[in-house]
Amino acid sequence: MLATTAAARSLLRSTSRLSSATTTTAAVRTFASIEPYSDYGKSVFTGRVADEYLKKHGSSGDILKDPSWTQSHSDTVAAAVLDWAVDRGANTYCHWFQPMAASGVRHGQTGQVQNMMMAFNRTTNDIEFDFDGKNLTKGETDGSSYPNGGLRATHTAGGYLAIDTSSPIFLRGDTIFIPSAFVSYYGAALDEKTPLLRSNAALSKQGKRLLKHLGLDIGDQDVISNIGLEQEFFLVPRDQYYRRPDLQMAGRTIIGKDAPRGQEMCDHYMAPPSLASPALACMQEIQDECWRLGIPLKTRHREVAPNQYEFAPLFGLNTTQVDQNLMVMQIIEEVAV
Questions:
Q1: Is 58 helix (H, G, I), strand (E, B) or coil?
Q2: Are strands 127-129 and 118-120 parallel, antiparallel or unpaired?
Q3: Which alpha helices (DSSP H) does the chain contain, by range?
Q4: With 287 labelled, which of 136, 211, 278, 301 sits at a CA distance of 20 to 30 A?
Q5: Is 89 a residue whose pLDDT tops 60?
């Protein structure tokens, strides 16, 4: 078919406009930006965050890689942590520990005593920041009422806290949390982390010994244990929750009957989260809170049972993963409420 002159001109104009639009689009097109996720890890004193503040005090983030910083650079790290905390609006610190037998009993399954990072001058009525290496690396509280405590004599009733350098300090609200081990006057474990740290030390010692017999000497490196803790949970509608005294009092199912069917249909498992329900919005908010704490909750999906869901993070060092999982459970409770 032969085109008329007018038709040819019209086609030429259309082609020109298409070419212009393509050129313009190509000019403004960019790669996907990660700027919306730039807050990831900003509330954890490690990596670039720690390096930035430690450099202001003549050091660098590399000193945190050697646990001996608690003896040689504790005041430097404390000063950097204080600056970071103040810049983030915090004025309080706590040694954050995991009391033995706390599972299912306390909110978040952790213990802490929060102290302000300030000194109060009773003469001038002035206040000033007061947070040094001693405050950062160790603490003391009442250990007499914990399992393995029970020592009522005044000089043996204390519970003693020491920073766990294998797990990073993090911040929520106006408080910095210092992951810690908790022991009695005689060194008995009052928490669930001390046995884990002792097991890690034994594993590393004997693992290095075995590797040496096999002809592999790893020198000063440690044998470490990595884990990936999946967190499964149920999201129960509020009106149904108020009908269940077992959930209210114990946080778990104690009364009731079996489900009408088992896993024969599995209609909930791996099903797409619905945009029409609050469950997806709840999970998104949980992820956002966790990302700020450097907790890499990468995977989320529905689980088998009705109203059951799961988060799965990237694997990591077992002590860090345990701490992060405890905080995930606390954040889930707080956000879901």
A1: coil
A2: antiparallel
A3: 5-28, 47-55, 69-72, 74-87, 133-137, 193-213, 238-241, 245-250, 278-292, 318-336
A4: 136
A5: yes
Host H or E run for residue 308: strand 308-313
Q: Which of 139, 143, 138 is nearest to 188 (CA)?
A: 143
Question: In terms of pLDDT, which residue wins out, 158 or 161?
Answer: 161
Residue 66 token pair: 């050697």
List the one residue out of 334, 293, 287 whose CA is nearest residue 309. 287
Q: Which residue has the tokens 């802490």?
A: 112
CA–CA dist 251, 268 (Å, integer): 22
- Structure pTM? 0.82
**Looking at residues 174-194, what average pLDDT do you find?**
91
Query: Rounded to the nearest 5 degrees, what angle is found at the Cα of 337, between the Cα atoms of 277 and 104?
Result: 120
CA-based R_g, the chain, Å: 27
Residue 31 banded pLDDT, cuts 50, 70, 90: low
Tokens of 258: 């079996």
41-69 burial, b at 16+ Cβ within 10 Å, e below that, comes to: bebbbbeebbbebbeeeebebebbeeeeb
Helix 47-55 vs helix 74-87: angle between axes, to the nearest 10 degrees?
Answer: 110
Q: Would you list the DSSP string of 137-203?
A: HEEEEE-TTSTT----SGGG-EEEEEE-TTS-EEEETTEEEEEEEEE-TTS-B-BSHHHHHHHHHHH
- Please tell me the distance from the alpha carbon of residue 273 to that of residue 300, in angstroms, as a whole number: 9
Distance between CA atoms of 133 and 124, rounded to whole angstroms?
26
